[in-house]
Design a protein that fits this description.
It contains three helices and four strands. 19% of the residues are buried. Helices cover 33% and strands 35% of the residues. It has a single domain (2-86), classed as Dimeric alpha+beta barrel (Alpha-Beta Plaits), CATH 3.30.70.1060. The radius of gyration is 15 Å and the shape is elongated. A four-stranded antiparallel sheet has the order 2-3-1-4. The two termini are 22 Å apart.
Length: 104
């Protein structure tokens, strides 16, 4: 399995408008989490000006499909999104663990 980061840039009025779409957005997110595709997700910044969602799956098509169906995207709360592969090498969940020399 690979890791992908779905990156959202949010509209200036994101915080004011998100309540209307939040339940549907969270339902979609928890469905993806239930399939073990979405590992973590949430708003970034104080106040929030973007969001990151971490996926573990075989293809970038999965987070892209999530974004295309997300009520935040569909209703303009997200102004731009992109999926990037994340080449994880450290940690228990790393897709391609690389140990430092001299460690086991």
């Amino acid at each position: 399995m690979k890791h992908f980061v779905l990156i959202y840039d949010t509209a200036p009025d994101y915080l004011q408008r998100r309540a209307e779409f939040r339940s549907a957005h969270l339902a979609l997110a928890w469905q993806a989490a239930g399939r073990a595709e979405l590992l973590l997700g949430g708003a970034v910044g104080e106040p929030a000006d973007s969001a990151l969602l971490l996926f573990r799956c075989e293809s970038a098509d999965i987070p892209a499909a999530f974004a295309k169906a997300d009520p935040y995207v569909v209703n303009g709360l997200v102004t731009r999104w992109q999926v990037k592969p994340w080449h994880t090498v450290v940690g228990e969940e790393a897709a391609n663990p690389v140990k430092a020399e001299g460690t086991s």
